[in-house]
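Thread: Newbie trying to understand structure tokens

Hi all, I'm a second-year student working on a class project, and my supervisor (Dr. K.) asked me to get a predicted structure for one chain before our next meeting. I've only ever worked with sequences, so writing a 3D structure as a token string is new to me. If someone could post the tokens and maybe explain what I'm looking at, I'd be very grateful. Here's the chain:
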Amino acid sequence: MSSGADIAAIEDAQKAIIDDFALLGDWSERYQFLIDLGRQLEKLESDQRVEQNLLHGCQSQVWVIASGDAEQVQFKAESDAAIVSGLIALMLKVYSGRSAEAILASEPVFIEQIGLHKHLSATRNNGLGALYQRIRAEAAARLVKG
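---
Reply by user tm_fold:
Sure, no problem. This is what the structure looks like when written as tokens:
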């Protein structure tokens, strides 16, 4: 996929998330939706849940693994917390499998548009920010490698 196509795919994924959340009623339904999304994450192997893959800045334990190259960066991640797993699932839906250039050229606007930032604790917002920064760092590292 070209970078332009990847940027469009990121925008489409964000729009789909915004549309999904618009269909849900109150925040108890939205939290349940997040928990359900988190349950669908692919589980990491025990040897992948190690210190070097741990995301710092999260209250929960979150492990992030990136693979691929600048053309397509793949992410796998897991958390020991249900809602955090759902947040991870949203971010992976938007960014995993995209080009490094497209990842760096886009912002996760869905977070504000669905009101997520207002309904998360400060520590969860910090953790979500840390996950986004890790995704960007992995993409930037692949661009440098070529």
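A couple of things are worth pointing out once you decode it. The chain has a mean pLDDT of 94. The domain at 3-145 is CATH 3.90.1010.10 (Sufe protein. Chain: A). Feel free to ask follow-ups in this thread.
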